[in-house]
Specification:
Number of strands: 3
Radius of gyration: 23 Å
Distance between the termini: 85 Å
Shape: elongated
Length: 168
């Protein structure tokens, strides 16, 4: 005869089992739909970009974008792979999310530099290292320090910021 305690245990165990199966099987479909949405918004942003920027900035952006896109493609393949465990899929998803956040942060910093100092720039974030390449006719230490302060304001932790000036 089954008592109340065993019945509750079986009920809760069954519920946990169903939720676990749901969790393992569901992310593939959600992530595929989410990634398609992101691709559409990324393409829309690319189409809005103007060609007023110098060739060196464009070359740096294209190079970084290709590098990141390759990494994102590998991570997306991991997410859709049936051979990967749930933990590996979660790690891949977290890395994808991190790469998207980095890209957004870089764009935000570039806009902030453009609005504050009227300079076209390229920003690359690599862990705690941030590289800023700004297009300017004058190469001023004061301007470099101001850009470094502007970038550091966005972070709580100490970042290692490099500012490089290039001529038009």
């Amino acid at each position: 005869m089954i008592n109340k305690q065993n019945l509750w245990f079986l009920t809760l165990f069954s519920l946990i089992l169903v939720l676990s199966v749901y969790y393992i099987t569901m992310p593939n479909e959600l992530l595929l739909a989410h990634n398609k949405t992101e691709e559409k918004t990324t393409k829309a942003k690319k189409e809005k970009t103007t060609i007023e920027q110098t060739n060196s900035l464009v070359a740096m952006r294209v190079s970084l974008e290709e590098e990141r896109q390759e990494a994102m493609d590998v991570l997306q393949q991991q997410l859709t792979s049936e051979k990967m465990t749930a933990e590996e899929k979660n790690n891949a998803y977290e890395q994808l999310k991190y790469l998207n956040e980095l890209q957004g942060k870089e764009e935000t910093l570039e806009k902030k530099i453009k609005e504050t100092y009227k300079l076209d720039s390229f920003v690359k974030i690599d862990n705690s290292n941030i590289t800023v390449v700004a297009i300017s006719t004058k190469h001023d230490n004061k301007m470099a320090n101001n850009i470094m302060r502007l970038v550091q304001e966005e972070y709580k932790d100490k970042m290692y910021i490099t500012v490089k000036f290039e001529k038009n």
